[in-house]
Amino acid sequence: MVVHALVVMNTTGAARLTKFYTAVPPAAQQAFVRAAHALIARRPEGVCNIIPSVSAGAATARTDGGAIDGAGGTTTAGEAGALPLAGSDEGLRLIYRQYATLFFVAAVDETESPLGILDLLQVLVETLDKCFVNVCELDLIFHMDKLHYVVDEIIVGGLVIETNMADILSALEASKREMLASAGGGSGLAAGVASTFGGNYINK
């Protein structure tokens, strides 16, 4: 699976994580986050979590001003707009999940499996929940380094390399042990970095 961008934002549009795997200038990244929030926030509860053809411009127009989405649902006029990301004519899908006050959003090619990306987002959230113990928005704000570390274990260069939560947690635990060992028994800067990861990731 190839991911062009991964964004975590709250319901007001404040970004808590932005990871772009396509070369995009900072201004375009900010515009992407704003546009993605505008698309997602206006969608009513119970609709499909997939917004198709959002990168190359508007979705396929209908005579009544609406648009047909890839899941058989309907997108109102102006909802499926252009998202400044790849700068190409290829369409992208926005696939998202909402957990409490947070939206986890992935921008992927239209050829990617939507169900696979939804599962990926679920794995990410469950992994964060194990790391932080009932993760909340404040955890992401005050432990940004840990959030990036978890994401980097799952996605590298836009490629999904791991979706098994147990393996992800094992890798994080091993990294913590290595940092503590390199600190000479738990002192110094490396120990301070490792301490931000809290206790064991894997429940005994």
Blueprint of the fold:
Layout: E1 3-10, E2 15-20, H1 26-41, E3 50-51, E4 67-68, E5 74-75, E6 92-99, E7 102-109, H2 114-132, H3 137-142, H4 144-154, E8 155-156, E9 159-160, H5 165-182, H6 189-195
Antiparallel strand pairs: 1-2, 1-7, 3-6, 4-5, 6-7, 8-9
Describe the structure.
The structure is a single chain. It contains 6 helices and 9 strands; from the N terminus they run ββαβββββαααββαα. The strands form 3 sheets. A 5-stranded antiparallel β-sheet has the order 2-1-7-6-3, sandwiched between helices. Helices cover about 40% and strands about 20% of the residues. A hairpin with a 2-residue loop joins strand 8 (about 155) and strand 9 (about 160). Mean pLDDT is about 75; it is low at about 55-80, about 185-190 and about 200-204. The longest helix has 19 residues, at about 115-130. It has about 200 residues and is α+β, with helices and mostly antiparallel strands. Helix 5 packs antiparallel against helix 6 (about 190-195). The protein is globular.
